[in-house]
Design a protein that fits this description.
189 residues; alpha+beta; EipA-like; signal; DUF1134 domain-containing protein; 5 strands; single chain
Length: 189
């Protein structure tokens, strides 16, 4: 997967998201170091770990150290309008682990299908329950067999950075959001 458009989107969001390094709310989960995340990602993603390390290092450079992360899998497809569904486990240092599901629509110049293993870095999370809302952004992808890429989705002061590795045939740019829920649902809205 080639993720050129995601880099340009992240460059634009970097200035908007400069608050990522600000003081966190009392009771918020502790942060994870880049080394911790790369290690967890190596175990989760397996042999394609060089791309993972580069993606995590770039996200850390832009947004700082996350205070949570999600490991899971997802599937999506689109023809102008699209859908994405996933499930995983959100990890925090001191606030416990939480099973999460996500789904979301997209609309734009986008066509194809993909299946991914996904690691989502979560920044500015005040509590584990705060993940259960919508996070919007611009998603661009060009899947050619497989690879790594990431984007940033925001809602107020919380930033979610999905890092995906998968297979499929998909090309496009779309406005999208992910809605996190504590139980699976087919309704992406």
């Amino acid at each position: 997967m080639v993720e050129c458009s995601r880099r340009s989107v992240l460059a634009g969001l970097a200035g908007l998201l400069s608050f990522a390094g600000s003081a966190r709310a009392q009771g918020a989960p502790d942060r994870f170091s880049t080394e911790d995340l790369v290690d967890k990602g190596h175990h989760f993603f397996g042999s394609v770990s060089r791309g993972l390390a580069l993606s995590i290092e770039e996200a850390a450079r832009r947004f700082g150290q996350p205070n949570g992360y999600v490991l899971g899998q997802e599937a999506g497809g689109a023809f102008i309008g699209g859908l994405r569904y996933g499930e995983g486990l959100m990890y925090t240092r001191n606030a416990g682990d939480q099973k999460v599901y996500w789904e979301g629509p997209s609309i734009g110049f986008d066509a194809g299908a993909n299946g991914d293993r996904t690691m989502m870095l979560v920044y500015g999370l005040p509590s584990t329950q705060a993940i259960f809302q919508r996070f919007g952004g611009v998603d661009g992808s060009a899947y050619v067999v497989g690879g790594f890429g990431f984007t940033a989705l925001t809602n107020e002061r919380i930033v979610v950075v999905p890092i995906r590795s998968g297979v499929g045939a998909r090309l496009g740019v779309a406005l999208s959001y992910l809605k996190f829920t504590p139980r699976p649902t087919w309704n992406p809205f």
